[in-house]
Amino acid sequence: MRPVVPLLPLLASLAAGCAVFDGPPEATIQGLSEGLLPDAHAPVVLVFDKPPVPSTMTLEIAPYVVDTEGNLGDEGGNTTGLNPFFIHDPVFGDTGGTDVLSADGTTLTITPSAPFPVGPQLVVVIEPGLADAAGTVTKVRRRLVFSYSGLLTCDAPAHAFQSGTYFFLVDVVQPINVQIQLFGQVDLDSATGAFNGQFTKAKRNPDPSRCTPACPSTDVCRLLPTQACVIPSTVAGSVDEFSDYVPNPDAPTGFSFSASGCAVDQAAMTAAFATGPVDVQVTQPMVTLRNAALSSSFTPDSAGVLRGTGALTADGVLLGTVNSGMGQGNLTARSIAPAEVPPDVPAPDGGAPATPDGGTP
Q1: Rounded to whole angstroms, how far apart are CA atoms 9 and 17?
Q2: Distances 265 to 32, 114, 117, 262, 316 between C-alpha atoms, Å
Q3: Is 355 strand, coil or helix?
Q4: Is the peptide bond before 356 cis (omega within 30 degrees of 0)?
Q5: Domains within the chain, CATH numbers bracketed
Q6: Per-residue pLDDT tens for 186-197?
Q7: What phi-psi label fits residue 291: left (phi over 0), alpha (psi between -120 and 50 degrees) or beta?
Q8: Which of the ends of the chain has fewer CB neighbours closer than 10 A, N or C?
Q9: pLDDT, tens digit, for every residue of 145-166?
């Protein structure tokens, strides 16, 4: 007769032989809802699932700007850097604000010297080496992406942002990788910060004779960053290549949409910029963005050009009739001097197109 083995002691013996994985400390952002925090003036609070050893904690809060492969500015051979707003370093201390680790080690409260920008996506970067008291160590970078809800109110004078024509590059990362070029003409009420904008697809200038020798009929002439004949779909390297583009407002390949929003002074020379949600429809290929919104933070450079970084978001992206989920892209933008604006950029509210002198015909 087969011996009877008691079940409970057997299970206990098996359980004792199984190692339980105990990972390194993991962090989340307190109050984050669907990637958004409600108040840019409140501290950012990180919550740890187990207390980290303070001497092992190095982190930054920076703009969330990635290349087409998802690398940050100091990753994958990139040399632009993180350009962080805030740094916590256990050796050199805090830069751009202060932080306090709670007595039980489970929360880190970060208070920046100035509010983080409303509009663009931001990222908490936790560097490798974060460890708990048992010596379990994080081997790779951790990213916590967030932004602020962008519920801007048009109820205060705005001077850091200006009316005019802008060039936007949106590098879409979800649901597909694609670059969108836009001209935006914006009329701002500086007394309230409210604006009306008209945003129009841009396409490469089709005139082949701009190059010497002229380009073949299959190509277009690109003058920046160096003269070359390229296929029309060649992406732009930066917003400073705006002069190689002309507006393309007409279906089936072009589009133009109106959006209103607010610009809010965040500092003497920095403005938050956000549009309200709007549906954008493209005929060819058939794509619809549901509740699309542009948001950015603008600051003038040394030459007085307003430059912005931010994001495009959409609650849903329909490829034909198939919902491919939320849309997300990284945005860069710059202002264009009136004399450099290409002809026929559509104006807000169906107004007359801009002309190269910055006025209307």
Answers
A1: 13
A2: 24, 13, 10, 10, 30
A3: coil
A4: no
A5: 25-148 (2.60.40.1220), 164-350 (2.40.160)
A6: 999 999 999 999
A7: left
A8: N
A9: 998 876 567 889 999 999 999 9
